Amino acid sequence: MLKISERLCTAASYVRDGAVVADIGTDHAYLPIYLALENKITRAIASDVNEGPISKARENISKYNLDNTIDTCIANGLDGINKYSPTDIVICGMGGELIVQILESSEYIKKQGIRLILQPMTMVKELREYLQNGYSAIAENVVFEDNKLYQIICVEYDGIIKQYSDIQLELGIKNIENGGDKLKMLLDALIKKKEKKLNGFKLGGYDTTDIEKEIIELKKLY
What we know:
The chain is an alpha/beta fold. The protein folds into 2 domains: 6-163, Vaccinia Virus protein VP39 (Rossmann fold, 3-Layer(aba) Sandwich), CATH 3.40.50; 179-222. The protein has 9 helices and 7 strands; from the N terminus they run αβαβαββαβαββαααα. The chain has helices at residues 6-12, 30-37, 51-63, 96-104, 124-131, 166-171, 173-178, 180-204, 209-219, and strands spanning 19-24, 41-48, 70-74, 88-94, 115-120, 133-145, 148-161. It has a 7-stranded mixed sheet with strand order 3-2-1-4-5-7-6, sandwiched between helices. β6 (133-145) and β7 (148-161) form a beta hairpin. α4 runs parallel beside α5 (124-131) and α8 runs antiparallel to α9 (209-219). The chain starts with 5 loop residues before the first helix and ends with a helix.
């Protein structure tokens, strides 16, 4: 059985049973292979913008005798993804800004019932700012791996515009609702970041009122 990282395993847990899954930026196709071996999906598309990763993905797919279950394609983001009719689309390991660009370029993901499972490496707040324009949070999670926190965001398009606070955008409304140790990890990291900024403001002689209020509000969530 293929063993994958906790980060990918957590993302995989939000793929629905019987799904047709598209793994965008698949690298070595570990995620769709894992899902196929777990008998969780009916079909998969492993997509990447470069030939190198796709070539390695094909080798791995053949190694596990999954050529009839997992297709591969070289594509930029979600270009041409509609011909595969995926129900669940996974985008892991990219910067939040790049994920936004990929989502912005596709109308397919706005079809009813299409699930997006996103794991940004950076700019999580900026990704959520984009998603509040028509996407509803289904689930969120936090993984601590290789001394770094990763956030997994699962959404579906409903066309309803939301308006979240900065704290909700940073932490995620589902993470806040769930609470517990994972929220505490996020809070610890965010407060540390804010306090560093606060000290910088103080040294520079800037007004620190707003950032002090932010820290107080964050500490209320413990």
